[in-house]
Amino acid sequence: MKFIKTIIGSHPKFQKPIPTDVPYLEISEFFYDTIQGEGINLGQPAAFLRVQHCTQNCWWCDTKEVWRTGNPYTMEELFEMIDKTDLVEKLKSGQHLILTGGSPLKQQKGITQFLQDFIKKYSFKPVVEVENECTLMPTEDFSRLVDIWNNSPKLKHSGNPDSLRYQPDIIRHLSKLDNAWFKFVVVQDEDWDEINVSFLQPGLIRREQIILMPLGGTREGLHRIRETVVEIAVRESVRYSSREHIELWDKKTGV
Ligand code: SF4
């Protein structure tokens, strides 16, 4: 897409060494001048910082090939790259900074450092959204920097072991944070039963925080399932979200 600007491209052709004495972030891709494609802020102009590594291994993950590769960048290197772009101006004019992965919380210490340094350097705090698979407890320092929590606990159909994907204490904690949403990837009616039994009935989350989103890493796959998911959302009086980046660009990364 011509209008989307890349700071760090996916699938690096070289491997940088891990720095030994300074903080760094392992990043898979970094781009801006696009839109948030999912969830409560669908359509919001945004920049995406995608970090490497994840706590999960969802069989249908459509970014696996991206977050499994990447490179470590020191804060200095990151700011050097940012200074060659108009990213800061775009964030000042309203683009959200979306931390995604992989698992941003796996690198929350480095991200916290990056955001604190960013605020100091540019005297400005961007609106920060985080995509969160809900398996790691956020620190207070990290939580203070996040404006919108796009939590997405994984259901059984993700193929992850229950002990790895379902962390009730963490989910309960997240649901109490400001602007916390729970975006569930749904395939069929049984998935609603699981949301009800495992999340709603034990009081881990509130109904008004729920967003249902169809599984679909391709436009064709999305179109096969979306009507079923809309039907469940309407029946259960919860929000529905499309995957607009898939609708627009199909199976393409860096958008
Ligand atoms: S949690 Fe998200 S990034 Fe990680 S494997 Fe699952 S879908 Fe992919």
Task: Give short descriptive properties of this protein.
22% strand, TIM Barrel, globular, alpha/beta, 255 residues, binds iron/sulfur cluster
Write structural notes for this entry.
It is a single chain. With 255 residues, this protein is an alpha/beta fold. The protein has one domain (23-249): Alpha-Beta Barrel (TIM Barrel). The protein contains ten helices and ten strands. The protein has helices at residues 64-67, 75-83, 87-92, 108-122, 140-145, 162-165, 168-175, 189-200, 219-236, 244-249, and strands at residues 5-8, 24-35, 45-51, 71-74, 96-100, 128-132, 148-151, 180-186, 210-214, 239-240. Strands 1, 2, 3, 4, 5, 6, 7, 8, 9 and 10 form a ten-stranded mixed β-sheet that branches. The longest helix has 18 residues, at 219-236. Iron/sulfur cluster (SF4) binds next to helix 1.
CATH architecture: Alpha-Beta Barrel
Count of helical regions: 10
Q: What is the count of β-strands?
A: 10
**Main pleated sheet:** 10 strands, mixed
Topology:
Elements: E1 5-8, E2 24-35, E3 45-51, H1 64-67, E4 71-74, H2 75-83, H3 87-92, E5 96-100, H4 108-122, E6 128-132, H5 140-145, E7 148-151, H6 162-165, H7 168-175, E8 180-186, H8 189-200, E9 210-214, H9 219-236, E10 239-240, H10 244-249
Parallel strand pairs: 3-5, 5-6, 6-7, 7-8, 8-9, 9-10
Antiparallel strand pairs: 1-2, 2-3, 2-4
Bound molecules: iron/sulfur cluster.
